[in-house]
Write a structure and sequence with these properties.
- The complex is a heterodimer of chains A (259) and B (281).
- With 259 residues, chain A is mostly helical.
- Chain A has one domain.
- Helices cover 85% and strands 0% of the residues of chain A.
- Chain A is built from 8 helices and no strands.
- Chain B has one domain: 3-Layer(aba) Sandwich (Rossmann fold).
- Chain B has 11 helices and 12 strands.
- In chain B, strand 4 and strand 5 form a beta hairpin.
- In chain B, helix 6 packs across helix 7 and helix 7 packs parallel to helix 8.
- The relative contact order of chain B is 0.16.
- Chains A and B meet through helix 4 of A and helix 3 and helix 5 of B.
């Protein structure tokens, strides 16, 4: 008897992609049907948005600061220290703000969703919900997806802002740059394409990390060990998909905005 | 103003005749790597109770999940309350499931909700909140299982037996047309098991609800077949001590994916099949 069958593995993977796609599709199509769970959505928005705010602010602030610190020596060699604001702004708004926030929220909330829904799955609570005529994708998945997409959008904006502030603190206190110069170059360097890129990525990332977290939770099996496995897989898959999709979104939008 | 009772509590029967089966299985088969159920056929008539017996892993729980449409069979047909469920979409099944009550093996109560929220779950889905009327119905359902005092507790604060009783209250609050019990006494001590069986018998005899009950405990099965609920005494009493009555409780025994016995308790005791004799001993 073979240890593993490549055919079975391929089938399982195709099945997983199919199941994930169906769940992701249902989470969107539920937006146009009844019932709508406003209270659950608000509760999730509070858990995901407000709950993630401290770490997003902290990470954003120090990322902006270290970005200014790391690039200052190189910029100084070319006598372009005044461009620190521009560099921090472009890096944070286009790339680091959305991606870091996405990975942080994935670590915090995809895992939370996978473990919560996974526990419900292995204790038959999701089956009980279905047995009582309640659609778990409407009750559990869609509120989490809506809340994550909306909160991810605003968290990324906050991350960009505190990142710029972190860069400013370094530029002003350590590098001795003029505050006006920093903020003016930062502001003037941003074009519509940069802002659009920075605001469209969080929407995609939010959708990915919420649907991945819910998918691994809702398909968890194998008791508490299975829930643990689902939690880990959710964080890994969400983080990897965020970085991979970031590349493709960046490439697409760069082509669109003629960078 | 229409009350929630009229909206949810008493679902309209779609059946044309009182003798039309509530649940019909016809040549149902399902396999998970290897066959689990093969050629399963039976009827559950209105007001009838069928007790599913069999060794662990023979597919008893699976039959309950097939009734609810939680799992689809590989072949055969399943009709529930006049509707063929095998071809129904999940979205359409939700409406049908609201007319069926299910008591899960491990209760499956929502651990982050209170007992009241658990019991009222279906009703809250309709109204969005606990109204005075829903609260009254929760108390009525909890009174049925004698757990009124637990209304504000969480499932984690209850014993195993109390959780099963709350699960029964949750299943009966909307007065479903069919009740499915998945090992309601599994893992409980004999005294608590007897309390649970008394509630099942009470539901059967007071509300005449059709039900399918899965159990490993022969003692529970025979208690159900030999006792009725006396409303005057408010307790379960042996049939032998009361008037002659038809309890409409029959047995189904599963073995190797097939039913090897269908009949009454008396017929079961007289059965000469060696496996059944061994099973009963």
């Amino acid at each position: 008897m073979p240890i593993f069958s490549p055919t079975e593995i391929a089938k399982e993977n195709v099945q997983a992609v199919q199941d994930y796609s169906l769940l992701a599709g249902r989470s969107l199509s539920n937006l146009f049907g009844q019932p709508r769970y406003y209270a659950d959505t608000l509760l999730q928005a509070d858990l995901i948005g407000v709950g993630s705010l401290p770490i997003v602010v902290l990470i954003g602030l120090f990322t902006g600061a270290v970005l200014a610190l790391q690039t200052s020596s190189t910029l100084q060699q070319f006598g372009s220290l005044s461009l620190t604001g521009k560099l921090v702004a472009l890096s944070m708004v286009r790339e680091l703000g959305p991606v870091l926030t996405g990975i942080l929220v994935a670590g915090r909330n995809s895992s939370g969703m996978a473990s919560e829904l996974g526990s419900m799955k292995v204790t038959e609570q999701i089956d009980a919900m279905r047995a009582m005529g309640v659609d778990p994708t409407k009750k559990l998945v869609t509120p989490r997806v809506i809340a994550t997409v909306v909160m991810q959008f605003f968290l990324s904006i906050i991350s960009d802002l505190v990142g710029l502030t972190g860069g400013f603190l370094i530029s002003y206190f350590l590098l001795g740059l003029d505050p006006n110069q920093y903020w003016t170059t930062a502001y003037q360097s941003l074009r519509f394409g940069d802002v659009f890129m920075g605001l469209s990525k969080p929407v995609v990332f939010g959708f990915i990390l919420a649907t991945i977290g819910c998918y691994y939770g809702i398909t968890a099996k194998g008791g508490t060990q299975g829930v643990g496995r689902a939690t880990t897989q959710a964080v890994v898959a969400a983080s990897v998909l965020i970085v991979v999709s970031d590349f493709f979104i960046t490439k697409l939008l760069m082509a669109f905005f003629n960078y | 103003m229409s009350s929630i009772t009229s909206q949810i509590g008493q679902p309209e029967r779609r059946l044309s005749s009182p003798d039309e089966p509530i649940v019909t299985f016809k040549d149902v088969e399902i396999a998970f790597e290897q066959p689990v159920l093969e050629g399963i056929s039976f009827h559950l008539l209105p007001g009838e109770t069928k007790i599913l017996l069999g060794a662990a892993g023979t597919g008893k729980t699976l039959i309950l999940k097939l009734v609810l449409g939680l799992i689809k069979p590989d072949g055969g047909s399943i009709t529930v309350l006049g509707e063929e469920v095998t071809g129904m979409r999940e979205q359409d099944l939700f409406e049908l499931r609201r007319k069926i009550g299910m008591v899960f093996q491990e209760s499956a109560l929502f651990d982050s909700l209170t007992v009241e929220e658990n019991v009222a779950y279906r009703l809250i889905e309709e109204t969005g909140r606990i109204t005075d009327e829903i609260h009254a119905r929760v108390l009525e359902a909890l009174r049925f299982v004698e757990l009124e005092h637990t209304v504000n507790l969480f499932p984690s604060e209850l014993s195993g037996g109390m959780r099963r009783r709350v699960a029964i209250a949750r299943a009966i609050i909307t007065h479903p047309e069919v009740l499915l019990y998945d090992s309601p006494t599994g893992g409980l001590d004999p005294v608590t098991s007897n309390t649970i069986i008394e509630l099942v018998v009470k539901q059967r005899d007071v509300y005449q609800t059709s039900s399918l009950l899965v159990t490993h405990r022969l003692q529970d099965a025979f208690t159900m077949a030999s006792h009725y609920f006396d409303r005057e005494q408010n307790k379960m009493v042996p049939v032998a001590d009361g008037p002659v009555r038809d309890l409409r409780t029959t047995f189904l025994i599963l073995r190797d994916g097939r039913f090897i016995f269908e009949g009454t308790a008396t017929e079961l005791l007289r059965c000469s099949d060696p496996y059944i004799r061994e099973y009963l001993s």
